[in-house]
Design goal:
One of its GO terms (molecular function) is S-adenosylmethionine-dependent methyltransferase activity. The protein is built from 6 helices and 13 strands. The protein has 286 residues and is an alpha/beta fold. It folds into 2 domains: 72 residues, no CATH class; 192 residues, Vaccinia Virus protein VP39 (Rossmann fold). The protein has a 7-stranded mixed β-sheet, sandwiched between helices. Strands 1-2-3-4 form a 4-stranded mixed β-sheet, covered by helices on one side. Strands 5-6 form a two-stranded antiparallel ribbon. It is globular and about 65 Å long. It binds S-adenosylmethionine.
Length: 286
């Protein structure tokens, strides 16, 4: 009756594609903050008004956004985003820092375990803590890993493809009074010879790709730049094993020689009651 027809991926008809709900915490009160994200096939906010009116009676709902995705595909990221109620972001706290998160920015779903994960990443990074080292945070999302390391580093450089995540990372640096972090939007699958010219040689590289792992171009660059230590974080054991093998043993058909030794792999249960596992892997230059 409201005209909220579900989107049919075969016929490419209908309105509602996805409903995403994210939770965070109010930084001052610690109270839950909820973001509701309607992903729709076109922009018809009038259809959502009755629903938004009801949802916003729930006091924890502080953000309602509408991502409009007109493509025939079924992804949850819109080409346009509209704020229908409240603010366009929610906040979350991790390892003593505050993070602002937009609907389309990656943020670990399990905050409690993310705290454990980031502590292990910090331990593996093994920064001296004297502020002398350069950290490169690849696939940085909203800047979480780099920002938790920034206080012990000389400078953190973060790279990420999603523009909204980079905007969040920059705001998150400001929000936490961190001035030694630079976040750059870029596609790490499409790097060319200029990549790496805009920052000093890293002492520690963190790489936290999504499930497909790292592109061969990035593997090649890592084998050329030879940072003393790489912390590889992965939620896909298959691509993780492949990329670790490339970094340690090289890629014969591409003429690349491996130059790292795998020191340890620590699994972290980020997704309880599922077969998925996250791994923190420490590689050192041979
Ligand atoms: C597993 S998440 C990690 C995010 C962040 N390190 C964290 O802990 O919150 C992977 C990130 O890689 C980004 N990403 C995916 N493909 C990319 C690419 N080709 N180039 C740069 N970033 C990419 C995603 O947008 C996402 O933010």
């Amino acid at each position: 009756a409201l005209g909220l027809t579900p989107y049919d991926v075969y016929k490419h008809t209908g309105f509602l594609k996805h409903l995403m709900i994210r939770t965070g915490r109010n930084v001052s009160t610690g109270a839950p903050e909820v973001m509701v994200n309607f992903v729709t096939s076109c922009y018809k906010p009038e259809l959502l008004v009755p629903l938004v009116d009801r949802i916003t009676k729930i006091s924890e709902v502080v953000s309602v956004v509408n991502n409009v995705n007109t493509s025939v595909g079924n992804t949850s990221v819109g080409e346009q985003e509209y704020t229908l109620y409240g603010k366009p972001t929610i906040t979350e706290m991790l390892r003593g820092l505050t993070f602002q998160i937009s609907a389309n920015s990656f943020f670990q779903t399990n905050t409690k375990q993310a705290d454990v994960l980031y502590k292990l990443i910090g331990d593996s990074a093994g920064l001296k803590g004297d502020g002398s080292e350069i950290v490169l945070d690849l696939f940085c999302g909203t800047g979480t890993i780099g920002l938790t390391l920034a206080r012990s580093a000389k400078h953190v450089y973060g790279y990420e493809v999603v523009p909204e995540a980079i905007a969040d990372a920059q705001k998150n640096a400001q929000l936490n009074g961190i001035s030694n972090a630079t976040f750059v939007q870029g596609d790490l699958n499409k790097i060319n010879e200029t990549f790496g010219k805009e920052f000093p040689k890293p002492d520690i590289i963190i790489s936290d790709p999504n499930r497909p792992g790292m592109h061969m171009k990035l593997i090649k660059w890592l084998l050329e730049v030879k940072a003393p230590r790489i912390v590889y974080v992965s939620c896909n054991p298959a691509t993780c094993a492949r990329d670790l093998d490339y970094l340690c043993h090289g890629v014969e058909e591409k003429g690349l020689r491996g130059c790292y030794e795998l020191k340890r792999v620590i699994p972290v249960d980020m997704f309880p009651h599922t077969p998925h596992i996250e791994c923190v892997c420490l590689l050192e230059l041979c």
